Automatic annotation (TrEMBL):
<dbReference type="Pfam" id="PF00316">
    <property type="entry name" value="FBPase"/>
</dbReference>
<feature type="domain" description="Fructose-1-6-bisphosphatase class I N-terminal">
    <location>
        <begin position="95"/>
        <end position="277"/>
    </location>
</feature>
<keyword id="KW-0378">Hydrolase</keyword>
<dbReference type="InterPro" id="IPR044015">
    <property type="entry name" value="FBPase_C_dom"/>
</dbReference>
<dbReference type="InterPro" id="IPR000146">
    <property type="entry name" value="FBPase_class-1"/>
</dbReference>
<comment type="similarity">
    <text>Belongs to the FBPase class 1 family.</text>
</comment>
<dbReference type="InterPro" id="IPR033391">
    <property type="entry name" value="FBPase_N"/>
</dbReference>
<keyword id="KW-0119">Carbohydrate metabolism</keyword>
<dbReference type="InterPro" id="IPR028343">
    <property type="entry name" value="FBPtase"/>
</dbReference>
<dbReference type="Pfam" id="PF18913">
    <property type="entry name" value="FBPase_C"/>
</dbReference>
<feature type="domain" description="Fructose-1-6-bisphosphatase class 1 C-terminal">
    <location>
        <begin position="281"/>
        <end position="404"/>
    </location>
</feature>
<protein>
    <recommendedName>
        <fullName>fructose-bisphosphatase</fullName>
        <ecNumber>3.1.3.11</ecNumber>
    </recommendedName>
</protein>
């Protein structure tokens, strides 16, 4: 008997071009074998090249990948990188800021790899840093810097030095700002690794940053004085701000004053790809994010607000749910996507490093940032490590929250700041 020829998947000829997914014919399954089509009915295996920009539309169904537009664009299905976006593909921020963002994203990629490393728990032993060493800006206790905080701080500082575009960097990890160069056009404020105490439990962490123009009118002042005053600018003077979320995906979310946009790290190319263009926070959410273990320490207004929305008796007639990660970047990222409010009613979060950059982002997305009474971006910092209550979220939710009046927690019984 003549042997039957067996078709194998690997024996099929390989094409030299990729057939667009929309043109690939759907396989026809025999009625008696609905789940096991013959092997020769699988589409041919494509050859993947590494183009300058990867085309992902055929592999991420329903994604929010934005296409290039304008002259020379690659069509609606072509992914755009962070550097292409800031270099004129989405906004034109100028060559100096493009170079700064390039170095900043590189630093955040290094931190992402560091956070995911199996060796990060022993990092302090190999670097000579000890937990609590260095310039702890926030004092002792819960916020004493861990080794990863310090190393992340050094990574960012090194990248900013390399950019040649930064005059001064102010960090949550340092007591005083670091003057880098006299002719740097920008000032960078940063929380290098927010939520680092959660790393051992694999809880998301993040980097927060804000970028200002150097105040040239201060150039004749002594270095320490001009470094401090440059770092104490109000949030209304921000040129750009952002955060990088280190989680199941590494997400670089930023704004340059023309909307809020999120880029996701493509590990195959090393590029941050625009996945969430022009983010708009919903005007209402159904989630509040706060450590409600402190419920009995809260002022009456905040307790009444939470009690009301949990029961679905607020202005929005649905029962709210609690979601709290205890990682500011992660809680804020979820709120930005789904709406609601994320908050810390205590005088705990830093105006310069956390409140201003995140308030800039949420306002650019159509939301609101407040200390419970005042717009965050309008507050003039008077100290580098100034703390305050922070409420961020959907416009209508924030207005309802503030209408209760007494929502700032001014006492912390049994709880060390």
């Amino acid at each position: 008997m003549k042997p039957q020829k067996i078709h194998t998947y690997n024996s099929m000829p390989l094409p030299t071009t990729i057939t667009p997914p929309s043109l690939c014919p759907a396989p026809i399954f025999p009625p008696n074998h609905p789940h096991f089509p013959p092997r020769n009915q699988f589409p041919p295996r494509p050859i993947f090249h590494r183009p300058r920009m990867a085309t992902l539309s055929g592999f991420i169904a329903g994604s929010q990948l934005v296409g290039s537009s304008g002259s020379g664009g690659g069509g609606d299905n072509e992914a755009r990188t962070l550097i292409e976006y800031v270099g004129g593909g989405g906004v034109d921020v100028g060559d100096d800021l493009v170079l700064l963002i390039h170095h900043l994203q590189y630093a955040c990629k290094k931190i992402a790899a560091l956070v995911a490393s199996p060796f990060n728990s022993t990092l302090g032993k190999h670097t000579g840093f000890a937990a609590g060493a260095g310039g702890s800006a926030g004092g002792s206790g819960r916020d004493a810097p861990k080794p990863l905080d310090i190393v992340s701080n050094e990574i960012i500082l090194s990248s900013l030095r390399s950019s040649g575009k930064v005059a001064v960097m102010a960090s949550e990890e340092d007591d005083t700002p670091t003057w880098i160069r006299d002719d740097g056009p920008f000032v960078v404020v940063t929380d290098p690794l927010d939520g680092s105490r959660n790393i051992d439990a694999s809880i998301p962490t993040g980097t927060i940053f804000g970028i200002y123009r150097r105040l040239e009118e201060l150039d004749d002042l002594p270095t320490e004085e001009k470094a401090l005053l440059n770092s104490l600018q109000t949030g209304t003077r921000l040129v750009a701000s952002g955060y990088v979320l280190y989680s199941s995906a590494t997400i670089f979310c930023t704004s340059f004053g023309s909307g809020t946009h999120a880029f996701t790290l493509d590990h195959s190319t090393g590029d941050f790809i625009l996945t969430h263009p022009s983010l708009k926070i919903p005007s209402r959410g159904q989630i509040y994010s706060v450590n409600d273990a402190r419920y009995f320490d809260w002022p009456d207004g905040l307790r009444l607000y939470i009690d009301t929305v949990r029961q679905g008796k607020g202005r929005y007639p649905k029962k709210y749910s609690a979601r709290y990660i205890c990682s500011l970047v992660a809680d804020f990222h979820r709120t930005l996507l789904y709406g609601g409010v994320t908050m810390n009613p205590r005088d705990h979060l830093r105006l310069v490093y956390e409140a201003n950059p995140l308030s800039f982002l949420v306002e650019q997305a159509g939301g609101k940032g407040s200390d419970g009474k005042n717009r965050i971006l309008s507050i003039q910092p008077v100290k580098l490590h100034q703390r305050l209550p922070l409420f961020l979220g959907s416009c209508e939710d924030m207005e309802e929250l503030e209408s209760y009046g007494n929502v700032q927690q001014k006492v912390n019984p049994g709880y060390e700041v």
